[in-house]
Design goal:
Helix content is 54%, strand content 13%. It has 253 residues and is an alpha/beta fold.
């Protein structure tokens, strides 16, 4: 009886991990603005592209705006850093890439930050931009305005003119500490941490052979998920080889 229960529990854990490790399919990197969800007009896309190109010419930093029709069942935090790695946004020797990601069907937005920009475009500043510049406009149904205002703030900061923005973000963060956000969802890192603990417990219950089998399956699934998804074609402009580690902030409306 105990062995049957253990095997059932192991099967549940493996199924959960298999679902989590499904390969994502990413949109094509067709330029500095990838408007898959159709939230921007042609004029908006052209203006944003010019601004982002000017930022790269000035700083070498690469900022990409992407709107998505679906996150494919993933948290935007998970999807975001994998998309940044797949597109290789940012210079390889600097990892100075960032993405502004909007998923209207999931009511989620994220500023994803490459390793090299985490000290400038911090989590606190990213959250401030999202909650004060982007979300109020999204809640009013004005996606184009929210995206443009968020991009303007990020460009100001990366261009070395964001001292005022940094001070405002610090004050905003201090106010949040005094007034905790009780509605914050359970972070995906906590969820996967709990799954990891459950896996260890089930390994102990099942014994050595079953445990090795589960860990081998997990390792193979992780390799397949990190291998990236698929996309159709690329533009003449592309990422420079940068990488991401999950820095940034998210918001929902």
């Amino acid at each position: 009886m105990r062995r049957s229960a253990s095997l059932a529990a192991i099967a549940w854990v493996c199924l959960t991990l298999a679902v989590a490790a499904q390969t994502l399919v990413f949109p094509a990197l067709t330029g500095r603005v990838v408007d898959q969800a159709g939230l921007l007009s042609a004029a908006d896309r052209a203006a944003l592209t010019d601004s982002l190109a000017a930022l790269e010419a000035k700083t070498t930093d690469q900022l990409v705006v992407v709107t998505l029709t679906s996150l494919q069942g993933r948290p935007i935090e998970d999807y975001g850093y994998q998309l940044g790695r797949y597109w290789k946004i940012g210079q390889k020797d600097k990892n100075n890439g960032a993405l502004l990601i909007v998923a209207p069907n999931e009511h989620a937005v994220r500023i994803e930050v490459g390793y090299g920009l985490e000290g400038t475009l911090t989590d606190a500043v990213s959250r401030y931009i999202i909650e004060t510049s982007i979300l109020p406009r999204f809640k009013a149904g004005d996606f184009a305005s929210g995206i443009k205002r968020g991009v303007d703030d990020i460009i100001l900061l990366l261009g070395g003119e964001g001292a005022g923005l940094q001070r405002a973000a610090a004050q905003y963060a201090a106010a949040r500490v005094r007034r905790p956000d009780s509605d914050s969802p359970l972070g995906p890192a906590i969820v996967f941490g709990l799954l990891g603990v459950a896996l260890v417990i089930f390994c102990v219950m099942a014994g050595g052979t079953a445990c090795r089998m589960i860990l081998q399956m997990l390792f193979m699934m992780m390799l397949s998920s990190r291998g990236g998804g698929a996309s159709e074609g690329r533009s003449s402009w592309s990422g420079g080889g940068g990488s991401f580690g999950g820095g940034g902030s998210s918001g929902r409306w």
